[in-house]
Amino acid sequence: MTDVVSVEPRTGGTVEVVAPETTPAEVDARCAAAAAAAPGLEALGRDGRADLLDTLADALEARRTDVVGVADRETALGQARLDGELTRTCFQLRLFGEVLREGSYVEATVDHAGDTPMGPRPDLRRMLVPLGPVAVFGASNFPLAFSVPGGDTAAALAAGCPVVVKAHGSHPATSALVAEILAAAASQAGAPDGTIGLVHGLAAGAALVAAPQIRAVGFTGSPTGATALMEIIDRRPEPIPFFGELAGLNPVVVTPAAAAERGADLGAGLVGSFTLGGGQFCTKPGLTLLPSGRDGDAVLDAMAVAVREAPAPVLLNEGIAGSYRSISARLRALPGVSTVAEGAPAETTDGFTATPLLLAADGLHDGLTDECFGPLGVVVRYDGEAALSCLLAELPSSLTATVLRGAGETELPGAVADTLRPRAGRILFDAFPTGVAVSWAQTHGGPWPSTNTQHTSVGPTAIRRFLRPVTWQDAPAELLPPELAEGPAGLPRRIDGRLVLP
């Protein structure tokens, strides 16, 4: 049996054995427990599950020092960054509690029996109900907000779906600690045993996706990993939905007016964004389209200065560090690509460090639009709007697309945004994409390869992924869910075609 070990990325050394890899029999047991917990979790009702989510957030807050300390040791992301990430994690758990209490997410709809232009209609009442147990795959770069206690887990539990999480190998000790905290808090809140489960190991992850009890998969990671899991799903006797948040180049367009107005600030801001967190954000702006000429030169010069001053970050694991070295070397060797600036060399050869890089290219060569996870940015210059349009037409889809514009400028930014809208889930103006606010209006997704779903993985509407519609026809009043019963229901409903507020 293979051990799951916790590695310190600052040194590259193994710190502890966390657990043995989860066996197939243990995966089956976790999934069976989740299936057994599903009716009880749904029976808690919206208010009960809201209380559950609040209790989970409180439990994490109570163990903040322990959680942040272990996560920092396993990821080298820094205590300040991880402290903020834990705050975000608790916020989104409590936000889904608010979503439950507000209730509109169930889309409660009542059509009373009566005559219609098509003839008599039966009494029809519809709402969204839980799918069933959900498999969640934690992400390497967010050991809290996109991992065991992250957004997928919060959304699934809010929907009424038990969760079995596949711990990420980059932070297994953090995953085990957080799972222990959450399981104890769930029990305290009255949730049934099996509401939250954890498995370790690649083979366990594959077995989890294949388990017949699992009704959906939430995944944050690479397109390669997503493809492997989707192939497993394709072999299941009964297909299930796969909700993946994957990759993206996240292009940034700097207009000539923006470059002329604030070139130095834009250059520093762009480098700050693509090196943030070691360049290990899925929303990292990997490509900047910059105007030719003196004003564009000023932006590029400022970017070069910022890169040369940037320290060598420690990346999350050996695989990411090795991939960064190989991809950056391949990009630098492409025809028409030059190295504009390199960051400071690492102070030590220990650990998984990476040198920040700024490259310039004379066009979008084959391979140049591939995502490079790490502190690397590419600049391509354009001479006029026609050349910019040609470059935009060559871009792959991404999670984000950004337009940095001049004061009051709308014509060119509007044309760029219209061109990029089919290729992105979020379009930004005069900001950098590496922050993803948790809010009702957020979209964290986009066309393949950024994701394979029409839904977001961040924000309250992420709950929609783990629900399905059911209609009750001519049901006795005693058998209707509270959300569909006659009389006040305490949530927005559409009754006989009209939206009725509580």
Describe it.
The chain is an alpha/beta fold and 502 residues long. The chain has helices spanning 24-43, 45-62, 64-75, 79-102, 151-159, 172-188, 202-210, 223-235, 256-275, 294-309, 318-332, 385-393, 411-420, and strands spanning 3-8, 13-20, 109-111, 114-116, 119-121, 124-130, 134-137, 163-166, 196-199, 216-220, 242-245, 252-254, 287-291, 337-342, 357-361, 376-382, 398-404, 424-429, 467-473, 493-495, 498-500. Strand 1 (3-8) and strand 2 form a beta hairpin. It is globular and about 75 Å long. It starts with a strand and ends with a strand. The model has no long low-confidence stretch (mean pLDDT 96).
What would you say about this model in short?
Helices cover 38% and strands 21% of the residues. The chain has 502 residues and is α/β, with parallel strands linked by helices. Helix 9 links the parallel strand 12 (252-254) and strand 13 (287-291).
- List how many beta strands DSSP finds: 21
- Cα-based radius of gyration, to the nearest Å: 24 Å
Gap from first CA to last CA: 56 Å
Biggest sheet statistics: 7 strands, mixed
Total number of helices:
13
